[in-house]
Amino acid sequence: MKKIRKTLAICLTASVLAVSSAVSASAVAFKDVSGHWAETTINRWVSLGYINGYPDGTFRPKESITRTEFAVVANNAFNYQNKQAIYFPDVATTFWGYAEIQKAYAAGYMRGDTNGTFRPKANVTRQEAAVMLANIKGLAVGGSAPYYSDSGSISSWARGSVNAVTAAGYMSGYPDGSFRPKSQISRAEVVTMLNKALGGGGGNTYVPPTQSTTDSVQNMTLSNTTLRNTIVNGDLTIPSSMSSRSITLDNVTVRGKLNVEGGGTITAEDCVINELVMDKSSAVFRAEDGTSVAKTTFRANGTLEGNRFQDVSIANSKVNTVTIDAEVENLTLDTDADMRLYGGAEIETFEITKNADDALIELSKGSRVRNMNIRDGVRIAGKGDIDNMTVYVSGVRSEIEPDSLSRKNGANKPDFNWEYDGKRHESSGSGSSSSSGSNKTISKDFDGDGETYKNVTVTDDADIEDMHVTGNLTIDESVENGTVSLEDIRVDGNVYV
Q1: What is the DSSP string of 140-194?
Q2: CA–CA distance, 415 with 417 (Å, rounded to integer)
């Protein structure tokens, strides 16, 4: 829980207010930038007002950047001021970055997706950044992508742009020969590539100290708890002899399979994994800081955490429970294992096959599935969000109503008022909150219990938690020098102190 005083800027969650709540620190030495490979450029760009640090004195160079935040930085750097009308269903006029998105749209370097949405809070991948930078510079795109070890994973719509920005010297690959197109681009990388596009050098070449030398082997069985700067051309095995010990992989590329037969928590930083096989019961694989995993299969119960995983499949009948607390592009449940999606889970497409039987899928508050396709009579519980649900069979039970429901093959509508665990649960889907359109004034400690309000005004000291504000959050002047504590609060509009 963070204590927030009226005299300080409010910082809620990085995903909502990372730019709007950041403060300039041009005269302050960032405690997490000294010695960083992009230190010179970061400090220069902050001094120019193109990008800001955070109230706690950090810059967070490794942190990802959202589409709206990218627009703010690019607009500042290239002085884009003209605006154009936009009509995206997921960008409200009260959204803090609305005007910046208008500028980016007018400049022509950002557009919506094929569904007509803008995804303002989605993190930018490296291939998306390449496309936007090519648009900004007006580069001629086309042809095949330059050779990278993972060039096959560059999406067709981005290949020409990756080729163009690579040829122009604005972006480059990693020392292991990869481009990592679907990894989230970091704040430091964004500053560096835009600086190069403006004609600045700054002496910053992306060669982190830990990646200065790289060993190459064919196959390897891990014997130590830490492995760094290694390319495994075949398979890397974490053996059962590692028991439940914590494992660290740093700048490791596995072109075959990473077999997890032992270990407790496996933390991967700046790694490229072709295929991850989870074969150790209760093992946790945590992908951090630029790690990409193309394919993941489960042979035992386990957990995924962290950055984006591309294709995740649960098909082995020996698996009982899988926990996802990560971003996953494609998730397939092809057995009757139970699924737990924790608050950090964001699933683009969730395929539930005819082999899922009566599996229980629990979505914790904060989790989200954009597209769920159901081909068996599964049970769905919890307080997460489902954007689009398509059912191909009858007998589906869910206490979460999706924003959009489609029925195929004559399937009946799911039962959205079913009894789970001996209790009746109210639907947590859109339209279930009776207070979604109301304003709220808070003058004492308040637990919103996940409810949604239009505008919220705080008039006295209070500990406030667990609610969604679709409009503005105002800390009234009557609070004076009091303390307002916010926890698990989402604000779509502005925060006024």
Answers
A1: ---SPPPP-TTGGGS-HHHHHHHHHHHHHTS----TTS---TTSBPBHHHHHHHH
A2: 6
Distances (CA, A) of 217 to 182, 229, 236, 251, 259: 25, 11, 10, 14, 16
Produce one character per residue of 153-163: b if its CB has 16 or more CB atoms within 10 Å, e if not. bbeeebbbbbb
What Rg, from alpha-carbon coordinates, does the chain have? 24
* Cβ proximity of 239 and 262 under 8 Å: yes
Within 13 Å and on the Cβ side, how many CA atoms surround 98? Answer: 16
Burial class of 171 by CB neighbour count within 10 A (0 to 12, 13 to 18, 19+): buried
Largest CA distance in the chain: 67
Q: From CA 29, how far away is CA 273, in angstroms rounded?
A: 36
Q: Which candidate, 121, 124, 120, 118, places its Cα nearest to that of 88? A: 118
pLDDT in single tens digits along all 497 residues of the chain: 333 333 333 333 333 333 333 333 333 568 888 888 888 889 889 888 899 988 888 999 999 999 999 999 999 999 999 988 898 999 999 999 999 999 999 899 998 887 889 999 999 999 999 999 999 998 887 665 567 888 888 888 888 889 888 888 899 888 788 899 999 999 999 999 999 988 754 333 333 333 334 567 888 999 889 998 888 888 999 999 988 899 999 888 898 999 999 999 999 988 889 899 999 998 999 998 678 898 999 999 999 999 779 899 999 999 999 999 999 999 999 999 999 999 989 999 999 999 999 899 999 999 999 999 999 999 999 889 999 999 999 999 999 999 999 999 999 999 988 765 544 433 333 333 333 446 788 878 887 777 777 788 888 888 888 888 877 788 877 777 778 888 878 887 777 77
**Burial level of 49, CB count in 10 A (0-12/13-18/19+)?**
exposed
Q: Supply the pTM of this predicted model.
A: 0.48
CA angle 305, 310, 313 (to 5 degrees): 80
What CA–CA distance (Å, rounded) separates 63 from 249? 19
